Amino acid sequence: xxxxxxxxxxxxxxxxxxxxxxxxxxxxxxxxxxxxxxxxxxxxxxxxxxxxxxxxxxxxxxxxxxxxxxxxxxxxxxxxxxxxxxxxxxxxxxxxxxxxxxxxxxxxxxxxxx
Amino acid sequence: xxxxxxxxxxxxxxxxxxxxxxxxxxxxxxxxxxxxxxxxxxxxxxxxxxxxxxxxxxxxxxxxxxxxxxxxxxxxxxxxxxxxxxxxxxxxxxxxxxxxxxxxxxxxxxxxxx
Lengths: 114, 114
Description:
The structure holds two protein chains of two kinds. Chain A has no helices and eleven strands. Chain A is an all-beta fold. In chain A, the strands form two sheets. In chain A, strands 2, 4, 5, 6, 9, 10 and 11 form a seven-stranded mixed sheet that branches. The relative contact order of chain A is 0.33. In chain B, 0% of the residues lie in helices and 59% in strands. The interface between A and B is medium-sized, with 31 and 27 residues.
C-alpha cells in the first residue's frame, strides 16, 4: 500500500475486556514496530519485528500485552484484561530493513478504556 | 538509558519568522536521528533523517543539524507559515540497541500565527 495503515482508528472498551489492534505495513517492509503514545508525551517503544519473529519485545509493559506477525506482513497487538492506564494512542511503524532505515508511521489507533 | 529532551516545549511565532527547535540526547552513541511532525490526532510524518556520520540534512525550508559529540540536534524552519503549526518530535536510534527502536523526546508544539 501507499503507507502504513492501522485499524480501527478509535477503540472504546470497558475495563477487563480484550482488544486487538491491527497494523498493515508498507509493502516490502520487513521491519515493523509498535509504539504507545500517551497525551502530551513522545511515543514509547513496545515491540519490534523482523520478518515473522519478535526481535525485541523489551518495551511491552507486562504480560497482558502480546503481538504477532504470523506471515511477516500484517501485525496484531493484543491486550488482555485492559486497564484504564492502557488508554493511549498505539502507533505502528515500518521500515525497509533495519540498519538505521527511516521509519514510517501509521495514523495510530486511539484506545480508550472506560 | 538514553534520554531525549526537546526545548522549548511550546513556541508561538508570527508568520514569516525563522525559528530553531532544539533536541538533546544523553548518550552520543547513536546510529541516526530522525525529526518528525505530528498534527493533532494524527500519526507521525517523517521530515528528515540524519545518519551519525552526517552533519546536516535539508528538505525545502527545513534544515536539521547534528552534533553527535555534544548530543545535540537542531531543526531550523525558514520563513514559517501557519501550515507549519504542529508538534515536532525528534527521535534517536541508539547504536547498541537491536532492531532500530527509536527513543523520542516529548516534542515542541509550534504555533505559527497569520
